[in-house]
Amino acid sequence: MTRYVYPFADGGRDMADLLGGKGANLAEMTRLGLPVPPGFTVTTAACREYLATGEEPGELAAEILCALAELERSTGRELGGRDNPLLLSVRSGSKFSMPGMMETILDIGLGDEAVLGLAKATGREHFAWDSYRRLLQMYGRTVLGIAPERLAHEATEDDPAALVDHFKRVIREATGEAFPQEPAEQLQRAIRAVFDSWNGERARLYRRREHIPDDLGTAVNVQVMVFGNLGADSGTGVAFTRDPATGARGVYGDYLPDAQGEDVVAGIRNAVPLADLENLDPTSYRQLLRYMQTLEQHYQDLCDIEFTIERGRLWMLQTRVGKRTAEAAFRIAEALVDENLIGADEALARVGGTQLARLMFPRFEEHAETTPLAHGVAASPGAAVGAIVFDSAEAVRRSDAGERVVLVRRETTPDDLPGMVAAEAVLTSRGGKTSHAAVVARGMGKVCVCGAEELTVDVAARTLTTPDGSVLPEGIVVSVDGTAGTVHRGALPLTDSPVGHFLETGEGDDPLTGAVARTLEHADHIRTLGVRANADTPEDAERARRYGAEGIGLCRTEHMFLGERRTLVEAMILADEEAGRRAALDALLPLQRADFTGILAAMDGHPVTIRLIDPPLHEFLPDRTELAVRVATWPTERDRRLLAAVERMHESNPMLGLRGVRLGLVVPGLVEMQVRAIAEAVVERLRAGGDPRAEIMVPLVGTVEELRIVRATAERILAEVSQASGLTVDCPIGTMIELPRAALTAGRIAEEADFFSFGTNDLTQTAWGLSRDDVEASFLPAYLAQGVLAVSPFETLDRDGVGRLVRIAVEEGRAAHPGLKIGVCGEHGGDPDSIHFFHDIGLDYVSCSPFRVPAARLEAGRAALADTKGAASPPQ
């Protein structure tokens, strides 16, 4: 038989699924012998049945009456009684904390007769009528659905009895019925209202934002009321066993004398520091400190505590493992290790890569308050201030002159790279976390906000129009918060990141950097998943090594064809004969070789996976529209030829067109040039006494025959370079798995591959049938808002769909080729949740942008904990 009601004495902290977090912790404090007002919890199972059927479980009413009778017996008071009545609070409490998202009703049991009994028992008539007023307000809004403004009152109104009469009339007018005087009816309807609040608009929105499942339901905690508003010897407060902002030990919290808990939340009066309680009520203060120590040692963590003092008697109303800043999370975890309360594994489990990422970048000072001009997608973390500019050339010009700038575009393209390098931050009105702007900005450690659709970017007029109609011309200073996804007018004060400086340089000895260093050291010690970086330049490679990367998982060669080299690519495309194409490729060869030599030197002794050119060639030609305008207004022979080439190579869907391995098969000499450049770079490094470990990766393979042909060409070139140099050039040759067909035929492809690397960006696009940049600016936000998707599949790997393709490819690839090395180099390689999946399915490494390497190292260590603990604790 299902049990729906648990007195606090029958529960415990391990029953949060059934009793909710609040109920489980009330039960735990009761078991510890702390002074908890008695009560009982109606379980989440009862809520789920009510929400599914519209009716409470048949046994629930009897169980509540039984539990209520025990409360009346233990307190010697009767619910709603005429003499010293028992009053109850009814509060929600889901498994996961949802502060303020669901309903609370206090003072259940008051009525026209009980209020007189309360006044007599306390000797405070004003207090009794004010409690009745509070009940009518909460009950009217929460249970009866009356608009809050109809039950509002001014704090200066000091005749609560008159307010009670007024609110009773409002209730009758609004509902056609009188406020119920029967306490049992009040209690039953209050419990039902709390159940209903699980599906309230703000609760649903909060769950979507925090990724809390909709089917958990809430428990309801029914508890004897205690009052902090009974005079100077009463009060209410909140306490933390450590500073939730910094993690430091001490006495932290607030206390409000002669007040109820909701008065603190409402901010009606200013609270005093918790330390002042020592002078106001020394006995309660000493008891509170003792209970705080008991709870912290029992929970082995920072505890957040709510308490009430009723006429000199301390009552503990709630405790939970407290929320904290990222800084406090690291400092508290390592402090608890030093105090021998937890071990290094548990300390690692209590922090996360997302928290570490927040600490790595500059941020705006917390007291800096300003209304954002607009909100967008928090695409690359950090904070930056600069003058807005609307094109790459202007960004470079102003930056060279010593001015800090923010590059503003509708969306970025590879041509914007110089401007992105020059800018402090990038702001776009289109795109999302995996758009070009986001990916490139993260790779460079630049602040980026994408998809700020409220802003109108007019590149021609060089203006930015805000939602309120203000027009910002070029040169106006803005502040961009890539962690919060907001844009602000003017220069907000910045705070540097000691953690970011420490991780890149090793310099720093404050408590925070020490805690981060110890945590990362332990993560590195236990993780089995390697961490590489996506890097395209020697500078990026060097930075990646400083951040702890163990190699390069993706070196994109197409980035090396931009800038001044674009003319050589154009020459290759425009060549009418083999000789012209060969001349262009021959000119590109030494440039590519120099690039690879520098990267191999920077990552000496570690693998460097070099991807052959991937995008369609027409991306290296001028814009089609701009060319057409030039040809129409001031034609040149070169522009005519370029336009003809652009028209000839134009594709309706270039993502699924002539790119990747297909280019290598139809553009003569392209693969040979790139492989030769790689091989000769290896030779150059060998002759310099280095330890180059280049790997050649073929992109967009859909069938084993493609890889077989390219592999044969690559092996031939490697053999030629080996023979000519007298040195052995041995480069593993593998492929990206980024098409569903490749994943489903991985067993056959593995026969020709030395390694796999999952390109999860394209694999997600092709598996879902989505164009990443388009959907992030169109319907994906609506899907997330409506709960169709809990998270963007481009941000966190879709385990059910794309993840299944990855799993199939891993299993079948290794079955056909035992020992096949497998990694991932898409954006998901730096996503904390996705890293756990990649660990679980046995990948060898993840690869991400250099600035995400420390967080990936940490999450890889947390993922390894699951092998011994079952799961890593979620960061607080």
Structure description:
The chain starts with a strand and ends in a 7-residue tail after the last helix. An eight-stranded mixed sheet has the order 12-22-21-14-15-16-17-13. It has 35 helices and 31 strands. With 876 residues, it is α/β, with parallel strands linked by helices. The longest helix is centred in the last third of the chain and has 25 residues, at 578-602. Helices cover 45% and strands 17% of the residues. The mean pLDDT is 91. Helix 4 (114-122) packs across helix 5. Strand 14, helix 15 and strand 15 (405-409) form a beta-alpha-beta unit.
Question: Which tags fit this structure?
Answer:
alpha/beta; 35 helices; 876 residues; 8-stranded parallel beta barrel; elongated; 8-stranded mixed sheet; 31 strands
| Cα radius of gyration in angstroms | 32 Å
Helix segment tally = 35
Distance between the termini: 36 Å
Kindly estimate the percentage of residues that lie in beta strands according to DSSP.
Answer: 15-25%
Mean pLDDT: 91
* Count of strand segments: 31
Percent of residues in helices comes to 40-55%
Helix/strand structural class: alpha/beta
> Which strand order spans the largest sheet, edge to edge or round the barrel?
12-22-21-14-15-16-17-13
